[in-house]
Write a structure and sequence with these properties.
Helix content: 40-55%
Radius of gyration: 18 Å
Distance between the termini: 34 Å
Structural class: alpha+beta
Number of helices: 6
Largest sheet: 3 strands, antiparallel
Strand order of the largest sheet: 3-4-5
Order of helices and strands: HHEEHEEEHHH
Shape: globular
CATH topology: Enolase-like, domain 1
Strand content: 25-35%
CATH class: Alpha Beta
Length: about 180
Amino acid sequence: MDNNKNIKKYLVTQIIDPSFDWTKINWIQKLSYLQKTPDKVVKTRTIQNKSIPYVEIDYVERALNFISNFDWGYTIIDKWLEETIVKDKEVYEARVQLQCYVVIDWKRIEKWSFWAWKQYKNPATSKFDVYKSAESNAIKNFALTIWIWSDKKRSENQAINKFRDENYNEEEIVKWFISTN
């Protein structure tokens, strides 16, 4: 099996071929491979008949593992969770600030990442789910700084902005965000 097939197999299915020598792929080859997010990992959610693409955190973490030979991580610098009432409904809002790092070609790259997440309280989720969504998106944000999934993030942002411009409904947007994490 060639390099591309082995790499795609790992990124899409998490299956590693033990006979494949991963050390023969240099960091530039790895980064160039990650410039195009495999279509199989791009999911979509439909909100009011609008299709919004997104990538799950599992793929982003596998891509970080791949590019760094499993040498990446983060420290939680600050976290915050608040409960409020919006339109007579309880809402959780979480914010997280991470100091992330990745080691590529023996060089440690450190970046700060911040994300906030808001969702209505419902029986299927907890405060912890809201916090984990904020944390996952902060990791995705960090991955964007080294161009992981950047080709698909742009289309996700465009779809969300178009949806908001055409028919802004905060409750539908919050429901979509809940369903994607």
